[in-house]
Structures are given as structure tokens and as C-alpha cells.
Amino acid sequence: MLFLLLACGDDEEINWVQYNAADDLVEVEVGASDVLDPVSAPLHSSTGEVEIGSGTVDPGGGPIGTEHRVVVELFDDYDQDIGRVTVRTTSGDRGEDEYELTPDSTGKGIWLVEVVSVGEEGEIRTDTLRFRVWTEGEVVE
User: Fold this and answer.
1) Phi, psi of 32 (to 5 degrees)
2) Which end of the chain has the lower number of beta carbons within 10 A, N or C?
3) What does the pLDDT read at residue 3?
């Protein structure tokens, strides 16, 4: 009987609710001739009233093919509430992509992913990287 109860739980999906403000973002220069300094932004609660951490992209720009390290660091008071972190890239005519960040093995509110800027030779643009921090909402069956 216990097996049947556990098996039923596998059909449930987590309903993720965005924990941070929708406008927590940075801009990255793609196609720049030089590798640029990192760019960072504070992350805020959903109302924008409380700072909950920071998001950084290093480097903050560079030539096509540059590998960027995206790091989200959450303050201790909030990291236990978070179960998922993503970054959504908006690249003009190239559209949008979303990347899952991986939590650091220490469980101390640090999440990261490596992304590579893509484009045609000679292309220059400014991409927006929007940090999205998620908490579990109600379970959807």
C-alpha cells in the first residue's frame, strides 16, 4: 500500500512562482572588440522593496563566442526559500532563451551557469539577461 501512495506523488508537478522582481537584469555587449568588466545588479523581492541578493555576468561583454559565467548569490535570509534559478536572455531578432543555473554544492545560496554569446561575424548588439529566482508554489496535479 505504501508503494501505491508514493507512486501517485510522481504525477504531481511543482508550480514555480517567481520570488524576485521582474526587472532584475543586466545588459551584456555581444560582439564587442574587447572583453569587458563584469556587470552586476542587486536582486529584489517581488515588490522591489527588499534586496535579496545579486546577479553577476562575467565578463560583461566581449567578442562573439565569449563564454560568460552567470552567478546569482542570495543572502542567507532568503536562500532557503529558493528551489530554482534561471536567467532569460533577450537577444533582439535572435529571440529569447532561458537557462537553468546549478546550485553550488555547499547549499549556501550560490547558483551558476556558463553561457556562450553567439552571433554572426561582425554582429554587434546588446543582450538583456533577466535573473529569475523561483520558489515552490502550490502543487499542480
Assistant:
1) -65, 150
2) N
3) 42
Q: Is pLDDT of 6 > 60?
A: no
Q: Per-residue pLDDT tens for 79-123?
A: 999 999 999 999 988 999 999 999 999 989 999 999 999 999 999
| Ramachandran area for residue 95 (φ above 0: left; ψ -120 to 50: alpha; else beta) | left
DSSP H helices in the chain:
2-8, 76-79
pTM of the full structure: 0.88
Question: Buried b vs exposed e over 116-136: b needs ≥16 C-beta within 10 Å?
Answer: ebebeeeeebebebbbbbbbe
Give CA separation, 31 vs 39, 57, 117, 125, 126, in Å: 16, 15, 8, 7, 9
Site of grid cell 552586476: 40
